[in-house]
């Protein structure tokens, strides 16, 4: 997964947990590791790692399906 911030930055993660005020990000490569917390007002979307945007008006595609979480 990839968390996309409104600033344009992105953070790679394996999983996430939606909380009332934001989203907790986790990396499970070495067990369950808390990567951080992103408040909802700073988060644009959480998308699959292979998600690619089409610039020609076609629908965006991903092997993992549509965007997992968007605001």
Structure description:
- The chain has 71 residues and is mostly beta strands.
- It has one domain.
- The chain has no helices and seven strands.
- The chain has strands at residues 2-5, 10-12, 15-18, 22-27, 33-39, 43-47, 69-70.
- It has a four-stranded antiparallel beta sheet with strand order 2-1-6-7, with no helix packed on it. Strands 3-4-5 form a three-stranded antiparallel beta sheet, with no helix packed on it.
- Strand 3 and strand 4 (22-27) form a beta hairpin.
- The two termini are 16 Å apart.
- The model has no long low-confidence stretch (mean pLDDT 79).
N-to-C terminal Cα separation, in Å?
A: 16 Å
What is the β-strand count? Answer: 7
- Output the strand order for the largest sheet: 2-1-6-7
- Which stretches are low in confidence, meaning pLDDT under 50 for 5 or more residues running? none
> Counting H and I runs of at least 4 residues, what is the number of helices?
0
Oligomer: single chain
Structural class, by secondary structure, is mainly beta
Q: Which band does the percent of strand residues land in?
A: 35-45%
Q: Any idea what the radius of gyration is?
A: 13 Å
Overall shape: globular
Please estimate the helix content.
under 10%
Q: Average the pLDDT over all residues and give the rounded result.
A: 79
Largest sheet properties? 4 strands, antiparallel
Number of domains: 1
Order of helices and strands: EEEEEEE
